[in-house]
Amino acid sequence: MSSLLRAYVQNKSYKEAIKEFYDKLAEIDAAKHFLFLAKKDQILKDLKKYWPFVTPKSEREYKESPTPSASHNIQLPRSQFHIVTDTLEKALINHEIRKDHIAQLCHDTLEVIEESRSQTNDDFLSVLDCIDVDSGSLHLLMKRQKVYSEITPAKEVHVKRGVSHDLWVHVDDDEKHLLIEGKIYIRDTAFEDQIEDIIFKQNAKHGIVRLKLQEEIDKMFLYDRHILPFGNGVPVRLLVKYLKRFSMELHMTHNYDSDKILLS
What we know:
By secondary structure, the chain is an alpha+beta fold. The protein folds into 2 domains: 119 residues, Globin-like (Orthogonal Bundle), CATH 1.10.490; 130 residues, 2-Layer Sandwich (Yope Regulator, Chain: A), CATH 3.30.1460.10. It has 9 helices and 8 strands. Helix 3 packs across helix 6. The two termini are 27 Å apart.
C-alpha cells in the first residue's frame, strides 16, 4: 500500500492541490477530456477509499514520469498524459507539498485517478463492496482480469495462474482485511548461511517483499504477508496489480539463489 498517499489523503493542502489540478486541467483543450470520466468529488472520495491498493514502486520508478494505467480503450496518448502529470505536479508545488514527496504523490495519485476513470467506463462489475467481499467473489472477479485461482478447503483464494508466483489470499471478515501471503519452499539440504544470504539480498532491494524464514511440519520456506484493509471495498483492478507486483518480486528472489536451494 502507499503509505505516503495514506498520510496525505486527509491533508488540507493536498486536497486543495487536487482541486486546483482539476480546475486547471479543465482549461487545457489538449487534455481536458481526461476529466470526462472522473469528476472532482469522486476523485477525492476514491483517493480516501483506494489508497491501500496502490502498489508502491521502486525509487527508480518514482523518478520516471508516470504512465497511463487506465483501461486500454480510454488511455491518453503519452504526450497528453504528460500534460496531466505536469499539471498535477505544478498544483502540488503551488500548495507547498514537500519537494521530496511530489514525484511519488504524482505516481500514486494518478494511479487512483486512472482507476476512477476506468470504473466510470466499465460495463461490468470491477469493485466489490465491503459486504460482498469473500473468496468466491474475489475468485470470479480476478478471473475477469485474467488471474486464475482455486478456493481451498480453508476458503483461501490460491492464486495460481496469471501471476509469476503462487499467492494465497485470505478474507478476514472480522477485521475487514485481505491477508496476502507468498511462500517459497526451501530444499532440506540447504544451509543456514545460504538462506540468510538470499534473504539479505532480497530485502536490500527497494521493493514491497520483505522475506522471513518460517517452518511448518519439517518444511522450511521464505515468507511474506501483506495486509490490505477492505472496509471501503475492493477495486479488483488495483488488487490484481498489487498481486502481480508481489508475485513478481517473489519470483525474482530466485535470481539470488546461486546454490539452487529454492524450490519453484
